[in-house]
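[audit] Reproducing an earlier prediction to check determinism. Same input, same settings, fresh worker. If the tokens differ from the archived copy the diff job will pick it up downstream; this log only records the rerun itself.
[audit] input (159 residues):
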Amino acid sequence: MNASDFITRQLAAAGWAPIHTEAAQMLRPEVARYFQTFNAWQRSPAGLPRAFPGAALYKARVPGFGDMLVLSRSAVFLAERMDWLGFPATAVELMLPAVRPSAMAAAVPSRRAAAAPKPDDRLDRLREIAGHEPPAHDCQRRREILAARLELANAGAVA
């Protein structure tokens, strides 16, 4: 089993997977040898939702682990589901929305999209994107605008 297999199996079994070597090792001791893969994903997590379609990336604060990256199929009861496996999350925040398989075919990779915005500029960037009128047809731009509006609404921020 490699790190990708661990995440795929963990998503299927529990609906969430830690992107953290020590947490993964607690769940499956044999993944400890893939610490370099987990460290690489922690340094540049932007590709995780594309690598695991249907899973969104969250940041969860877990006592003893600090801020832990977590992939999850659903945000519903995520903190409780993490607690069931021994990871009591005190705060869970969406970092990157899920990429649906149909959106992957239409998406064109760009260097600009790969660079994550600074945390303090995140709301400003979301407001900028949400302020545009979405195209009538289904495209990546429309999905970005609607996702930004949804994230602002969930965060309680005004567009």
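[audit] rerun output stored. Observation attached for the diff report: The radius of gyration is 16 Å.
[audit] end
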